[in-house]
Amino acid sequence: MSTAEIEALFELPLMDLLFRAHSVHRANFNPNDIQRSALLSVKTGGCGENCGYCSQSAHHEGETKREALLSVDEVVAAASAAKEQGASRFCMGAAWRSPKDKDLEKVAEMVSAVKALGLETCVTLGMLKEGQAEALKEAGLDYYNHNLDTSAEHYIKIVSTHQQSDRVETLGRVRGAGLKVCSGGIVGMGESRRDRAALLAQLAAMAPQPESVPINHLQPIPGTPLADAPAIDVFEFVRTIAAARIAMPKSFVRLSAGRQGMSDELQAMCFFAGANSIFYGERLLTTDNADAERDQALFARIGLSAI
Ligand code: SAM
Ligand code: DTB
Ligand code: SF4
Fold it and tell me: Pick from 5, 37, 148, 207: CA 20 to 30 A from residue 288's CA?
């Protein structure tokens, strides 16, 4: 679908858009299923990139407390706890522009150990160079997360230390190594509706489309350039989920950062619009997530089952 076609979806009356998105959702998935991924920051803060939304950039006053790379044992303990709580996938994030080969070896060990617990594995480590995606695949990695984050046009206003095209290149390496792709973006960074449509068009144009598409609501971090970004209308967020579902009918669309601040009703509307995955567990990377008890209660009330 083109940017203009996706923009036209955004322009529909909300009820028409929801009906269309839910019909596409139903034709491709059981609408009562929800996939749950847990997240762990395995290396926190001190990142040399200047992504304007991020709590981990060394360029921002609001940088979070730095932590060195965790040990394999620490990661395994967190992954076991996540499995116990019901997560099916464990995603490990590192605040790197790109991993050094020595770091990658350590992460590969983490991946193998998490895989051995019977969990699906995902990592998000920044840009990859030749051969690194293959090494991760070899270690048992299922998914690589690397978000395009926003339209190419808006990206240059948010980050200047790399380009969105660098991210596209890494996604090519990930796909080339036979890994599944997790790629999505952030809504609420001062972008226009056209930027949101352009991001979805760019993701949808990938062949094959990403298996997993996280849609994050900006978590404004004090001391970052986007701390005071204007809030977007909640229905515009729902529209973004619905448009993602229509443009990428077979992808898992993940209702990602920002759930903590959303009402149960708003989350239910996002699930109706086609979101069928969440980040599950008390923490995202450096900020709090909706807690698991609340999620379980919500799923029980509305009849969603974990897959
Ligand atoms: N350094 C790697 C990278 O940039 O790809 C991996 C970690 S980075 C924190 C992973 C993703 O988290 C970003 O691409 C962005 O989509 C999301 N993210 C980071 N900070 C966020 C925030 N404040 N609100 C919403 N999403 C955020
Ligand atoms: C993604 O799309 N969202 C996650 C994960 N992929 C790595 C990260 C959200 C981070 C939210 C802000 C924080 O906790 O630092
Ligand atoms: Fe944050 Fe990743 Fe950007 Fe580093 S590269 S500042 S960790 S989003």
Answer: 148
